[in-house]
């Protein structure tokens, strides 16, 4: 290679310099805007949040339905969400089950069908669940009711996300 090949012309120097400076300035403008635009998506969804539902003193060994509301942030949108849980005492344990049938999502009720006492019953297709949420064989649901994560703080029962039991 000759020495001439290594020389950079004034035009090339200006082109490289202006391209570099222009790119740097553009990045300084575009990157903060992009970050601002996608920031809500990068935030945690709040799924790990715990919500106060009732007092431990309200619970018995019979499942009772409790409704609870909280604000849910979903990217740019905040909405009031209402959930329900069937909660009962199992010795020292607190069991909180989702009322959503694991067949097709109807709402189950406790002890509501006289032919199947002391079970959760789904009126849509006759799905049945035992007290601990286990699905009764031979009925449409193929998995147990989902179970909420439970915490007790100062006598108040907090529920987290309902998760599959299997
Ligand atoms: S939705 Fe509950 S049995 Fe079908």
SSE blueprint and pairings:
Elements: H1 3-6, H2 10-42, E1 51-55, E2 64-74, E3 77-90, E4 93-97, E5 109-110, E6 120-122, E7 127-129, E8 147-153, E9 156-163
This protein binds FE2/S2 (inorganic) cluster.
The site of FE2/S2 (inorganic) cluster (FES) has 11 residues, from loops.
Domain Rieske: 63-159
InterPro entries: Rieske_2Fe-2S, Rieske_2Fe-2S_sf, Rieske_Fe-S_prot, Rieske_Fe-S_prot_C, TAT_signal
Transmembrane segments: 12-34
Features:
2 domains; three-stranded antiparallel β-sheet; alpha+beta; binds FE2/S2 (inorganic) cluster; Rieske Iron-sulfur Protein; 166 residues
| Total individual domains | 2
Which overall shape is indicated by the principal axes computed on the Cα atoms?
elongated
In N-to-C order, the SSE pattern is HHEEEEEEEEE
The unreliable regions are: none
Strand order of the largest sheet: 1-9-8
The fraction of residues in strands falls at 25-35%
User: Please, how many helices?
Assistant: 2
Terminal Cα span: 70 Å
User: Can you summarize the main beta sheet?
Assistant: 3 strands, antiparallel
What bound compounds does this protein have? Answer: FE2/S2 (inorganic) cluster
Give the CATH topology of the largest domain.
Rieske Iron-sulfur Protein
Arithmetic mean pLDDT: 88
**Can you say what the CATH homologous superfamily of the largest domain is?**
Rieske [2Fe-2S] iron-sulphur domain
Number of beta strands: 9
Give the structural class. Answer: alpha+beta
Q: Rounded to an integer, what's the Rg over CA atoms?
A: 29 Å
CATH class of the largest domain: Mainly Beta
Helix content bin = 10-25%
Based on the structure given, which CATH architecture of the largest domain is correct?
Answer: 3-layer Sandwich
């Amino acid at each position: 290679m000759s020495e001439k090949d290594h020389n950079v012309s004034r035009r090339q120097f200006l082109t490289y310099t202006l391209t570099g400076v222009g790119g740097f300035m553009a990045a300084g403008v575009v990157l903060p805007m992009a970050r601002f635009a996608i920031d809500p998506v990068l935030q945690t969804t709040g799924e790990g949040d715990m919500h106060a539902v009732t007092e431990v003193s309200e619970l018995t060994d019979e499942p009772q339905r409790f409704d609870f509301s909280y604000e849910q942030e979903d990217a740019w949108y905040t909405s009031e969400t209402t959930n329900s849980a069937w909660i009962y005492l199992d010795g020292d344990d607190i069991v909180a089950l989702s009322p959503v049938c694991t067949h097709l999502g109807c709402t189950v009720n406790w002890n509501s069908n006289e032919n199947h006492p002391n079970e959760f019953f789904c009126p849509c297709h006759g799905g049945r669940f035992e007290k601990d949420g286990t699905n009764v064989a031979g009925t449409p649901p193929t998995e147990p009711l989902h179970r909420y994560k439970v915490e007790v703080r100062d006598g108040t029962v907090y529920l987290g996300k309902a998760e599959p039991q299997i």
